[in-house]
Design a protein that fits this description.
The structure is a homodimer. Chain A is of the alpha/beta class and about 675 residues long. The first copy, chain A, has three domains: about 110 residues, D-amino Acid Aminotransferase, Chain A, domain 1 (2-Layer Sandwich); about 140 residues, Phosphohistidine domain (Glucose Oxidase, domain 1, 3-Layer(bba) Sandwich); about 290 residues, TIM Barrel. In chain A, about 45% of the residues lie in helices and about 20% in strands. Chain A is built from 27 helices and 26 strands. In chain A, strand 10, helix 10 and strand 11 form a beta-alpha-beta unit. In chain A, helix 15 packs parallel to helix 19. Chains A and B meet through helix 18, helix 20, helix 21, helix 23 and helix 25 of A and helix 18, helix 20, helix 21, helix 23 and helix 25 of B.
Chain lengths: ~675, ~675
Amino acid sequence: MVFGNLGDDCATGVAFTRDLSTGANELNGDFLINAQGEDVVAGIRTPQQITLSASRQRAQREGCSEDERKERNPALEEQMPDCFEQLKAVAHTLESHYSDVQDIEFTSEHGQLWMLQTRTAKRTAAAAVQIAVDMVYESLINEEQAILRVAPAQLDQLLHPILDPEAPKELIARGLPASPGAVSGEVVFSAEDAEAAVRAERQVILVRIETSPEDINGMNAAEGILTTRGGASSHAALVSRGMGKCAVVGCEALEIDYTQQAFQVRGTDLVFRAGDLITLDGSTGEVFQGRVPTSAPKMESPAFKALMTWADRRRRLRVRANADTPHDAQVARSFGAEGIGLCRTEHMFFEGDRIDAVREMILADDTIGRMRALEKIVPMQKADFVGILRAMEGLPVTIRLFDPPLHEFLPQTDKDLEELAGKLNIPVGRLHTKRNVLYELNPMLGHRGCRLGITFPEIYEAQVTAIMEAACELTRAGITVLPEIMVPLVGYKRELEILRKRIAHVCAEVIASQGATPHYLIGTMIEVPRAALRADHIAAVADFFSFGTNDLTQMTLGLSRDDSGKFLPDYVSQGIFPQDPFGALDLDGVGQLIELAVRKGRAVREGLKMGICGEHGGDPASVEFCHSIGLDYVSCSPYRVPIARLAAAHAVLKEQMANERRTSRKESVKPSGAVLAQG
Amino acid sequence: MVFGNLGDDCATGVAFTRDLSTGANELNGDFLINAQGEDVVAGIRTPQQITLSASRQRAQREGCSEDERKERNPALEEQMPDCFEQLKAVAHTLESHYSDVQDIEFTSEHGQLWMLQTRTAKRTAAAAVQIAVDMVYESLINEEQAILRVAPAQLDQLLHPILDPEAPKELIARGLPASPGAVSGEVVFSAEDAEAAVRAERQVILVRIETSPEDINGMNAAEGILTTRGGASSHAALVSRGMGKCAVVGCEALEIDYTQQAFQVRGTDLVFRAGDLITLDGSTGEVFQGRVPTSAPKMESPAFKALMTWADRRRRLRVRANADTPHDAQVARSFGAEGIGLCRTEHMFFEGDRIDAVREMILADDTIGRMRALEKIVPMQKADFVGILRAMEGLPVTIRLFDPPLHEFLPQTDKDLEELAGKLNIPVGRLHTKRNVLYELNPMLGHRGCRLGITFPEIYEAQVTAIMEAACELTRAGITVLPEIMVPLVGYKRELEILRKRIAHVCAEVIASQGATPHYLIGTMIEVPRAALRADHIAAVADFFSFGTNDLTQMTLGLSRDDSGKFLPDYVSQGIFPQDPFGALDLDGVGQLIELAVRKGRAVREGLKMGICGEHGGDPASVEFCHSIGLDYVSCSPYRVPIARLAAAHAVLKEQMANERRTSRKESVKPSGAVLAQG
């Protein structure tokens, strides 16, 4: 036993071989004169800093003069210079030995330094990246080791601002962490108010019971979104993630009163009114009172770039992004996306005046009426596709044809319905009838996806025309485009067969009239369990498969993501779900089905291009699974692309390690086997 | 070439060797003197009867005297007795040769009889049964042949009244054939009116946009149900089928105006008011004006009984019924059910005052409140179970624990919600909040089934207490009961593990306190695709599997049965669905999954008891499939039990025939193979 409390020439402390917050290669830590380890931990006395620079930084923060500092809070470096030098040397030795940053407990007894314990230090994501990369440059580890030192999920911290961990916070309530980031702003209760406030250069948080497609512009204007209803796939969550916008959803503890322009925290007197400041943490689902300081994202650092380059060199899996607009496409590319795995075309239908044309289409009584409305939509969609395909020049862009049920495009409330009737100059009764006719008990399993394509061929034909006209225009301008036309919700080979024929026909017509021959593919989403079970048949008429793991999870588990919030917590806490199956792929169930489909599909069509485009594409464990079953790519939200890239590299390295272990095990087994055989 | 038009000693006609309507063993048919075949078919001249008895019957119908008849419409038997005797002899020869009823064209040229053509005659279901059985007694065919002569689906005609095919009919509209049978009655527009009318001994058809659980008593009172919305699994369809009550649903051509107490046929001036007579054909979905005469069911005939006895002797598959009440259980038993495969407990919750206790449970804020409400429900459910278990003495009864989402039990309209608030003496605002909290976007995939069992353990505990108290009471009274407690919507082994433990615990407690030890099983429905994929794991904690093919089809195909009406016709007509997948099991997709689950389940637990309890249990092709993959039983609506029994016998006989063909092919191949091997 050694003692740090035998007099003023004794001390005890904790040192870190590098800065655990930034990763800077500087020894740092705290110590106490004449004390034992418990005293440092107990927090009764305020410890001193190990290095002079840290001591001076603290003095500056506290407004101490250099003399006061020397008097009250000298550094180990100046108070016990010998001990400090010894510590530096030992720290270097330990770090070199373990090839990683160390968290060291030490004691100095009458000037003699003793090490009590050393262990690998915990660090922030920024530090993890910096340290891993520095250590490669210092030849302590190799690139592979550096890659494995950073957990892919950690990167999320670098891609979004985070709340200052030191800042004081007052928690109001907790919802579901729907889209990461940390933002503050004034409370507003409508999309219009959000837009108006932002025009007045105020930052706002849009607070709604739930959001609908009509709120898109307001959501875009707001800093963050807070809803009191809905789950991880609610409109608010999906749209926010797509926009890379911070969101907390399903925060059921808040009771909104739109007429009073206020929300109350259930079971308390706490009331927040329009204009009050709040802060959201989209990574934890927490909602705080007032403004909580945040720190900026770190993905521009050279270390980050170096690590990603090394990762990219090693991974086999391509990483694409889900993006619906030219802007999103550019963001995705800047994050390193190698194509778009899912471009949802219906989001384009809500922008500006387009919704009117879409509604006109829905309300049309016959094919002629629908075609007339679609003619207005085609040039708008074409412009979108030109923008997206141009932004992704030389990279594949998978465009999903119209997917949602038509009733999603009609106004929800009677008042809005009346307004629309006035605008379109038709009797409101007809609108009511149409809404009733379109009403569905379980819209997830209803008249949507390719079912609309089958019953209303003109919708897909118009979309394909827009895609191919855009592709031809860019091709003529010398820009390489690789559109992949994707049919959603296919369950039967015959569905795809019928639609493929029609799509190919439209493509051929556009190509013939435009004098350009862009390369294109026609494939399908595999998102209905039956499609996975019949993948061998469907593969015969598909150029590619894209596993829509969101819907595939909903159907395979019989679990509506929007409605699962009520029991999901119980299910996770009782160990039924190892984790939220919409966050990490359910490998045993949904994964089994995907594996089956990959095997069946490739048995019929060797080298069939396959990827996934659900939210799972950005989950590290799911990415490793996708690698292991031989998918070609994963596609995720732009803000998760770096995570997927790193995870894909991890998958390769872990596979190599497992193979090496197997090989070495075999080799060590062989000789004794040979002896046995001889004996 | 022979001629029947060379004078009055020539004739031509069509004869049937037996009566094709009743099956009676009597030669019959029509002929014309001095005519060729076309004349009989053309219908220009009214043909005469072949037999004297038929000629006399016709005369009686037309009010002719015997002299008039002889003059105007003599029979072949009396006009050309030689020819008649020849025809009788030939008919007998042909029938004996082909071992089946013949449809013969003949011509008599100057008294010489010539046969032009003979073929197997088409016949009604009643005739098919009668003829098949008679021919066994006549040693023309054996019992196996007789069984195969009757198509199982045909039996539907015998189990329900059918519309007189000869009667004049005026079609109003066509909906979905939701529940077979043919009924007439006065139009009423509410469940209350239906009940009142029936108390006044009037027969009524309940006409609704859709029905809800609150309409149960009215539905029970009405002769038939007609709805303008909903598909084959709408509330109206499911409940009607369960009750064996004729129903036409989703008849979208009718526009109901409840305030005017009238419905109009869209696009016409035709209006029907309360009190007007209409007729429904639940087998075709047709709705007719006025009363159309019907003929009674034929399942009491000795021939039918004989055929079913032969079928029962041969089948391997057991046939159970889906029944929710003691009355249904008795009906099921009378149709030959060998147990109940699905007893839904939630239907019991709607009867009379029970719904109040159920609502009290739903509105309770905590476990104590729910338990208090459940205490009121337990004795009521116990009484139901006593009735059902007693009715099924000695046979297994599978009781499914609470399955539907709770919001199904709250009133739909704001007005009803206010009424309920008054009744329960709670603020209406609380009810609104509760309804909003319980609201689900996709209730099919929401908080229901075992998910309720996990989050509100007291619900299942109360139900299991009721079941076991009933079982103990009957056991003490010397009645053998075989309850099988079934947990719905399981997707994860852990769900069943947790619930099984709780259920077994409650069972043990009741048994300990009641001094009786009834035998019971605890098993699960396999209705979530994941459950099928993980059947090997789930089998470890299940005493039995019951495939819920309705939900399994909905989830595997991503197809809401209620919402599929909008595109199902297109899907069938374009050849995507070979037929409605809710009518006949989708063998390629859902069937593949069931087969996988059977294999996986039995690999872990040999002899694991398995059956299906969806609507498919009454579909002949699906029954054959269930036989072929080794299920133990099928369960269907009571009125389809005879169909399933016959189909199960067909499955065995077809299998035997296929095996025999295989064996004989092998035998015929073997010798030459042997020669080859020698050569």
